[in-house]
Amino acid sequence: MALPPTPPLRRRLAALLYEAVLLFAVTMFAGFLYAVITGQRHGLEGRSGLQAWAFLVLAAYFVGFWRKGGQTLAMQTWRLRLVARDGGRPRLGQALLRFVLSWIWVLPPLALSWAMGWTAGGSASLSLAAWVLVYGGLSRWLPERQFAHDLLSGTRLVDTRPDLPAA
Known about the structure:
The protein is mainly alpha-helical. The protein has one domain (9-159). Helices cover 60% and strands 6% of the residues. Helix 5 (107-116) packs antiparallel against helix 6 (122-138). Keywords: Cell membrane, Membrane, Transmembrane, Transmembrane helix. This is RDD family protein. Residues 7-153 form the RDD domain. Pfam families: RDD (PF06271).
């Protein structure tokens, strides 16, 4: 069975940006629940617990959607699907590994921002944008133009537009 082609980088990055907008609401609601459950009254109170909670909520969001149908809400909009290397549904271990490895999009710029003493202002944002372009651009040289976290987790993104020939 021939798998659908890999979506172009610009569509994958557009889906990533849209995903970030949707995740704003998810994390705000999760933060509200955490505050209600723990009685948190200040944003810096229980910060480590809140970060761990947010990580778990994001893991449940992504892994749940990837296991159910291979698509988050943003991936449905941009007609992208996550599949296992053989074209089937990703296993639980693959989805979890992909989630953990996908933090390579965020952690290097955050570490640089922290090491340089930057605040959440323009320098940190510029660092993140530059890293997204570098990491995304590296996919041009990887097999099937997949991202490194897909390659390492045994998954791949495919284009689900109906008018495309199989690769």
